Each structure stands twice: as C-alpha cells, then as structure tokens.
Amino acid sequence: MREKVFFKTFGCRTNIYDTELLKSYVKDYEITQDEKEAQIIVINSCTVTNGADSGTRAYINSLKQRGVKVVLTGCGAVSKGKELLENKKIFGVLGASNKAKINEFLGFKQSFFELGDLNFIDKDIVTQYENHTKAFVKIQEGCDFACSYCIIPSVRGKSRSISEEEILKQIKILANNGYNEVVLTGTNIGSYGLKQGSSLGRLLQKIGQVSGIKRVRLGSLEPAQIDASFKEILDEAWLERHLHIALQHTSEKMLRIMRRRSHTQNDLELFEMLINKGFALGTDFIVAHPGEDELVWEEALTNFKAFKLTHIHAFIFSPRANTHSASLNEKPVNGSIAKDRLNVLKDIVKHNNLEFRKNNKKRLEVLVESQKEGVFEGYDQFYNKVKIHSPKDLSKTWLILDEYECKTEHNEASLGG
Predict the structure, then answer these.
(1) Comparing C-alpha atoms, which of 320, 317, 203, 188 is closest to residue 246?
(2) In whole angstroms, what is the distance from residue 379 CA to residue 367 CA?
(3) Model pLDDT for residues 212-248, shown as the tens digit of each residue
(4) How far apart are CA 143 and CA 159, in angstroms?
(5) Dmax over Cα atoms in the chain, in whole Å?
(6) pLDDT of residue 417
(7) Is 407 helix (H, G, I), strand (E, B) or coil?
(8) Which residues pair with 311 in a beta bridge?
(9) Cα–Cα distance measured from residue 392 to residue 368, given in angstroms and rounded to the nearest whole number
(10) In this predicted model, what pLDDT tens digit does every residue of 196-208 receive, in sequence order?
(11) If we measure between CA atoms, which residue out of 46, 14, 48, 11 comes closest to residue 323?
(12) 8 A C-beta contact, residue 100 and residue 124
C-alpha cells in the first residue's frame, strides 16, 4: 500500500500555485485531502511576518504527537528551515527550485536540507486545480525592490519572468479545461517582463484575447507599475473591477523610511483616476513601523481617508532579521496604540466598502465558489463577497445578479426555484 501525502499551504496565491505544481510531481505516493490519513505532510510555508512563522511553527508542533514525516518548503524553508531541521522539528527542507524532485525526496530515509537556488524558473505548468473554481497562473518569481522591512527578496530571489508563450499556453489549456477565471500571481507581478522589454499591461492585452476567459484577477501591484500599457486595458470587460495596489503607508516621511519607490501625492492621483473608472481598490498597510510617531500617524490618517479604499490587508509591523527596518534605532510604538491604529484603518475601510456597494448598485457578475450551511458564496467583479440563497445547486456557476441587498459585510441575494 502506498504512503499517503497531505499538502498544507500557508500564505499567498503564489503558494497555492506552487502546491498544485508540487502535487503534479508526486508519482509514487497517494495524495490525500484528509490530513489524519497521511504518513507524510508537506508544508508550503510563508514567512512574510513573524505571525506567519509562528503559524507554521504551531502547525509543525501540532503534528509531533502523530509521528508523521514533515517536509518543509516555501519561503519559510529559506528563513527557518535550517533551525527547524537542527531542532528535529521536521524531517526535511525542500527549496522551491527542487519542486520537480519532490517524489524522490519523499522517499529519503535520512533527513535532508536542499534549498537549491534562487534563480530558477518553473518549467512546468498547472492545468487542473483540485477544489478550486478559478485557476492560478504564476507569471513571475522574485522581487527587485529593497523595501526596508521585507525579507521576501532574500527568500524568493531577484525578479524573473515566465515567457509570454508559456503563460498563454497555460491559460488556453485552463480555458479548455473549463476555467473561466484566472488569477495572475507572483512575488511582484507588476515587474513582469521588464527585463525582456515587455510589461504586465502587454501580457494582459494578450490574455484578454484568449477564448473562454471571462475574468482576470490580479495579485498585488505597486503604484508605479500602473504604466501606460496597463492603463490601456482598464476599460476591458474581462478585467476584474478591483485592483490591489500596495501603498504600505500614506505618510510621505514613512515611505522614505520604508525605502518605498512611491510618493503619496502621486499615489492619490492614481487612486482617484481608478475610482473615477469605477474600480474598488485595496491595499497593504503596515502599522507601527519604526518612526511612526504621533505626527507621522496623524499625517498618514488624514491622507488615508482621501484614498477611499474598499479593501485592506493591514498588519502591525514585526521586525524581520537581516532587514534595514530591524536595525532602526527608533522608539517602538506601544502595542495597544498599534492595535488601535490598526482598528481605525479597518473601520474606515469597512465603512468605505459598504458605501461603495450602496452607491454602486450595478449588475453583479459572480462566480460561485463554495457552499456553507446551505448558502452559496462567491465574489463579484469588485471582489466583494456575495451570499446566494437558492434551492438549486449553483456550485461553480456564473451568475448575473440585478437584485441583491447590501449587508454590512457582504451582498446577499435570493433566487427562486
């Protein structure tokens, strides 16, 4: 009887893609969706914050009593793999460039530490996604930015892009396999193609011409990456009407401390242009970074309100080893103050999101992704959750909703039999 392998994925959409690619290389083992059945567990880890590391560590500790073989991959393999292996918390460490060798490594009888290199490009593609209604397509890897707080370039390497030919080939296969929505992912997708004289906008123009693709969603972008070629596709019907553009902060002084490439006034002008085109806009925001004194915070808060954000991924700063931010000799922001600031931002965005949905009562295009307690759920073109009551099975179907109610956290609709 073949041993069973369970894959546990933490973190971003890129990791979701990488996990599916890892699964495709497993030949001599049975992949199980039931963690309790597995003799081997592969953890695709995230290390973007201390909280991400803690989550991975807690999960590893929860497995100790079961005596399973644990293999660590993903970003945490680079930052924490050696420590976890030396402390006998895991059986092996598999670097991202070694994905294609996972079948071989799963059979090892002795512990291993194989990080590989940070210059790889995946040569194979994912054409099926288990338990997903949409498909993830990785278009690039790595990042050339040097933001003061971030360790991702050190664990993912420099930016490098997958060829347009390979990406379009993958998307055509996915469309033929019934996937109408694709999500473009990568470490820094806005840098796509720049070293090859291309751009994300030019790639999108070609993706939009693929037959069968109804909607294209994008991972996080940098403000400066919304260039002329990208602006050319803003009115295309297949482009999701939600963009996630990483500001990280809205104080000009803090942006300089963070070694960001953007400027608050330029960012605001960009957001105003996109809002006028009907986009819902999200961002990342780091609260309580060293240097965020009261004056900086008040400036940031005033500016933040002007951005009219509808979605946010905000978190409290956590120092990462070997980053510039961790070495700054600044008085840290009190923990309770940091939490208050975080909640202020979330409350503003929650209010903005409800107002956006109330004032933007347009026909919603929803791909149903799941069912919970008899209620179907999906996301509309503005990346807002929609709950649908229906006696019919709506799983994995596209819906056009003209009648719906704006609830505090989501939109809701009822369909008759």
Answers:
(1) 188
(2) 6
(3) 999 999 999 999 899 999 999 999 999 999 999 999 9
(4) 4
(5) 65
(6) 59
(7) coil
(8) 282
(9) 12
(10) 999 999 999 999 9
(11) 48
(12) yes
**Residue with structure tokens 């567990």?**
41
DSSP for residue 187:
S
Query: Residues 359, 363, 365, 368: is their CA dihedral positive or negative?
Result: positive
- Alpha-carbon dihedral angle through residues 38, 41, 42, 45, given to the nearest 10 degrees: 130
- Alpha-carbon span 76 to 44, nearest angstrom: 8
Parts of the chain with a pLDDT under 70: 131, 417
Sequence length of the chain is: 417
Number of H helices, E strands in the chain: 14, 20
The residue among 50, 93, 51 whose CA lies nearest residue 70 is 93
Q: Long-range contacts: 60-67, Cβ < 8 Å, 24+? A: 60/84, 60/89, 60/90, 61/89, 64/89
Q: Can you say how many angstroms the Cα of residue 113 is from the centroid of all Cα atoms in its chain?
A: 27
Q: CA–CA separation, 211 vs 209, rounded Å? A: 6
Q: Let me know the angle formed at the C-alpha of 98 by 93 and 102, rounded to the nearest 5 degrees.
A: 75
Residues 249, 242: Cα–Cα separation, whole Å = 20
Rounded to an integer, what distance in angstroms lies between the CA atom of residue 156 and that of residue 83? Answer: 19
Please, are residues 353 and 308 in contact by the beta-carbon 8 Å criterion? no
pLDDT at 116: 87
Instruction: Provide the token pair at 416.
Output: 């008759």
Q: How far apart are CA 188 and CA 254, in angstroms?
A: 21
Residues 374 and 341 sit within 8 Å (Cβ to Cβ): no
- Token pair for 226: 């919304």
Distance CA 238, CA 53 (A): 36
3-state SS string over 249-298?
CCCHHHHHHCCCCCCHHHHHHHHHHHHHCCCEEEEEEEECCCCCCHHHHH
Plot region of 259 (φ>0 → left; ψ -120 to 50 → alpha; else → beta)? left
